[in-house]
Amino acid sequence: SQTIHQWPATLVQPVGSPLSLECTVEGTSNPNLYWYRQAAGRGLQLLFYSVGIGQISSEVPQNLSASRPQDRQFILSSKKLLLSDSGFYLCAWSSWFNYGYTFGSGTRLTVV
Amino acid sequence: QKEVEQDPGPLSVPEGAIVSLNCTYSNSAFQYFMWYRQYSRKGPELLMYTYSSGNKEDGRFTAQVDKSSKYISLFIRDSQPSDSATYLCAMSEGSGSARQLTFGSGTQLTVLP
After folding, report:
1. In whole angstroms, what is the distance from residue A2 CA to residue A91 CA?
2. pLDDT tens by residue, B15-55
3. Do the Cβ atoms of B103 and A100 come within 8 Å?
4. Which residues of chain B have a CB within 8 Å of the CB of A99?
5. How far apart are the C-alpha atoms of A20 and A32, rounded to whole Å?
6. Is B93 exposed, middle or buried (0-12, 13-18, 19+ CB in 10 A)?
């Protein structure tokens, strides 16, 4: 069976510090991978998606970047965090054989 | 106008009530419709999946799609306190290379014991 791992679960970072969130998928090959942000009381905002190694599409211009160094690894980064980067970050995957997306457990980021 | 509109609630009902959650959309190309349930501080989990118009039932949950009205619904019968969560509708046009989903903003549901 397929599983998705996302860490850390909670993160408190000062403004101007770097960020690295990691997501890995097990049990499948060549998944589509996604990073979403969910602000409090708001819907899901697609940040990045990837259909293969090194292939990253950005949906929203911002202070964040994403990379996919391996088939089942997706990393969300920032060089300098802003207060507005606070939120709940979710990684998800999809493939031709599954319905919809499967989400990770999320990372709650607070920038102080 | 957003592509997908969903009443944010919050919605509060007594245990055992029938709950109706709804979304409207504007893109007539949407063919795949989903409902996700998200507990507090957790990632969304897929609850129901339907293709095109019609009804689909799974236990206490029924998903309904009316493409002519661009309207989808999720019904929860005999609601339980464990159903308290945020429910998000989602939809997509097809199975493209990334099959991007468009999400509603979510409805927060509380079922009171």
Report:
1. 14
2. 999 999 999 999 999 999 999 999 998 999 999 988 888 89
3. no
4. 32, 34, 46, 49
5. 20
6. middle
